[in-house]
Amino acid sequence: MRVQPPVELGDGLVFRELAPGDGPALAAAYSRNREHLAPWEPARSEEFFAVETHVRDVEATILRFEAGLAVPFVIVDGDEIVGRMNLSDIVRGAFQNAHLGYWIDARYNGRGLATMAVGLAVHAARGIGLHRVQAGTLVHNAASQAVLARNGFERFGLARRYLRIAGEWQDHVLFERLLDE
Q: pTM higher than 0.90, yes or no?
């Protein structure tokens, strides 16, 4: 099942769906970006960075994709993963909603990749018939908030102590993008 064909982003970078063999490259990307991502993600055990962990995660994520519950993407530079983007927690019925999450390799920050990739994920969400996409950012994550704003997301609330990030329950600003407007 393909939702979004691969898209060339320039400079050899490609936005594409997660593939079954991506576990080792994903493990390498998380290991390479361990310090860069630490302030923005849950606290990670050593086991999280193991190749086997990401091989299993990729398999489970592809099963959720095949079940229509998620659409996982990566940004690659050759064989190296340099970004991840997920439409997750897809709910159909009266809601037609997904949550959006993403990160970009520290070496590639500031190139507009997150903005392009969010736009492509929104396009994919529209293509599978979703009505809305929502995302949350830490209150102090101005860069991610700017990426969302550039893609037509609007702030709609503040979730207190929303997620346990970097070992602490932290507030998140909530954003939404209605896809049928």
A: yes
